[in-house]
Amino acid sequence: MSQTVDRALSILPLLAEGPADLGRVADRLGVHKSTALRLLRTLHEHGFVYRQSDQRYRLGARLIALAQEAMENLDVREIAHPHLVRLNEQCGHTVHLAVYEEDEVLYIDKVESRYPVRMYSRIGKPVAITVAAVAKLLLADLPENERRAVVEKLDYPLYTARSTPHAEAFLKELAKVREQGWATDLGGHEESINCVAAPIRGADGRVVAAMSVSAPNVVVTADELLTLLPLVRRTADAISGEYSGRTPVHHADPLHHPEKETP
Amino acid sequence: MSQTVDRALSILPLLAEGPADLGRVADRLGVHKSTALRLLRTLHEHGFVYRQSDQRYRLGARLIALAQEAMENLDVREIAHPHLVRLNEQCGHTVHLAVYEEDEVLYIDKVESRYPVRMYSRIGKPVAITVAAVAKLLLADLPENERRAVVEKLDYPLYTARSTPHAEAFLKELAKVREQGWATDLGGHEESINCVAAPIRGADGRVVAAMSVSAPNVVVTADELLTLLPLVRRTADAISGEYSGRTPVHHADPLHHPEKETP
DNA sequence: CTGGTGCGTTGCAATATCTGCAACGTCCAT
DNA sequence: ATGGACGTTGCAGATATTGCAACGCACCAG
């Protein structure tokens, strides 16, 4: 809508790929060098880009600080975190928390597996929306028409032989997930990795987030992982209760929540 | 330099404080509502802001994803991380990694203490630059004139009775730190918290990052913490060696480094 | 039911703002 | 020296951005 801003913002993902010099930025943007320079300058003033010693531009610190603030404001995350940690302590596997936002599902928290073999994922990174267990739960809860619209728009990459192949199959899967109130991903994203997931609901019953436990075949079989389902669901329910204000917040470890700012 | 971009970017920190509606954004920016609307729309298209169900705007997901990418590109961080973890396993306390960037020092990695009492800090958050041990190391290594310029510009908040009171004292402290090659913060930020820090150097000998171990008095005394100094320095040196390419990268646990993307 | 208030949204005309150009400075390698 | 690559600046023209005023809509109170 606003050309100047549009161009300026386009610079950021570009720099995320790695440092770039002025000429490169200008080229990729399709504008004159002087224009790119002025945009970069503005970004720089706000701390969004940083000019390293070799004169090339990198993403700046303020960006990181902002994102961190953004995450702290997500109150589901804050409430859920101790529960995720506890769950991880109980089962040892990687625990994820994800939310849906504008056609994307993204991880907003993660507790690493205690086993040496870990799965690759990244907080803030959009998840493989057509196969991830958490994505299924989040999409399954969208209103009928919106869900349909989103599902139709998606691509269906065949990560493995068990990936969801197309919209139709996905809709069917979502219906099932919606029905049973939990979801799995059995090797749909990476051949050897399985997940079990459960929804976290707000006071009105709508799914606000989803959590999952993931483990590679070499550690536990899919069947063994499924035995954790009740535990995962209980954890998710506990978070739901706390998030929607039904459960009096119970602090297993009150020192876990330090004061914001001043001592 | 560019008014439009400038205004657009100013919206982000504003939203970081919490969700805001159009009117509020327009007011704070000092522009007409329609102008604010168009800026927000552009930010929205890029995923930097998100419109929640009550129509108010929040910081968006792309911001988080970008910041995460930005951090992954910091290669000091990547190299240092396993070392930080190992150090944490050895001593049990909170370990921080920080870099200097444009008049600020900020944490770019953190491994939490295993003790229940933890210190409050946040990745991406600028540190208390006048007192933090890591900040001293990073500033101490700046070229004379630049260091002086920065130090003069700073505020010297008295967090505690032992905080650095003014520029003069700070310069003196920096000289000492520069001399000895390590730094401490003994209750300068929070009465009951002490830190020991050591520098990480690039191939040219310049300090590229600094790491610290922090622990509250209730867990270990300052003297006890100081006994960790040799260990901290060895760790920092190990990171330096690897970062500057002198040391052949040695994998204590090769499975620690998952492949990027595809399996 | 109705009038009012608060909010987001749109079309428009005026102009302030941004753009691309061309020229300059600097650094580096040939 | 000399050429090229790169970042930087002043300028005039063009275009994108702005604020206004009017509209639509939802919500609330009388």
TrEMBL record, chains A, B:
Task: Please give the InterPro entries that the UniProt record associates with this protein.
Answer: GAF-like_dom_sf, HTH_MetabolicPath_Reg, Tscrpt_reg_IclR_C, Tscrpt_reg_IclR_N, WH-like_DNA-bd_sf, WH_DNA-bd_sf
Tell me the segments the record calls region Disordered.
242-263
Limits of the HTH iclR-type domain: 2-61
Q: Where is the IclR-ED domain?
A: 62-245
- Keywords recorded for this protein, A-Z: DNA-binding, Transcription, Transcription regulation
What Pfam families does the record point to? HTH_IclR, IclR_C
Stretches with biased composition (Basic and acidic residues): 250-263
Q: Which PANTHER family match?
A: HELIX-TURN-HELIX TRANSCRIPTIONAL REGULATOR, ICLR FAMILY (PTHR30136), HTH-TYPE TRANSCRIPTIONAL REPRESSOR ALLR (PTHR30136:SF24)
What is the name of this protein? Answer: IclR family transcriptional regulator
**What lineage is this protein's organism placed in?**
Bacteria, Bacillati, Actinomycetota, Actinomycetes, Kitasatosporales
